[in-house]
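Sat 14:20. Reprocessing the chain from the morning session after the first attempt stalled halfway. Input below, unchanged.
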Amino acid sequence: MQKEAAIREPLILGHKSYHDVTEDVCRPIEDKAPRMWYVLFGIALIIALYGIGCIVYLLGTGIGVWGLNKTIGWAWDITNFVWWVGIGHAGTLISAVLLLFRQKWRMAINRSAEAMTIFAVFMADLISTRFMFCIIGIAGARGRP
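Finished this time. Tokens:
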């Protein structure tokens, strides 16, 4: 029924059928989750609730929570945005340098660098969007421009 390659050992041992392989792959998803999954889910839920509480506190108190007040111009939001933009530039630079020098081994590193760039751009956008939401929402509610 199944042909074996002559140049290497078979990848699936034990003479399993396609149905057996499908059952082995689907078993972790279809079975009941182990107890450790519920423990880790509970920890993640507590962290998420803490984050939501911090956002509610921020919206109630103002962006002075980040350290932005009349004497300081660079607070958490601007610093974080500049950090992620810099990380994105680093990923682009790594890819460009490897391409310019025509390195044959660059593909795996390029993928990682480009993934790092995409993630950094996403985070910078998330930071800037959240910053603008808070500025508009809080300043509008307090009557400041």
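Helices lie at 18-30, 35-61, 76-100, 107-142.
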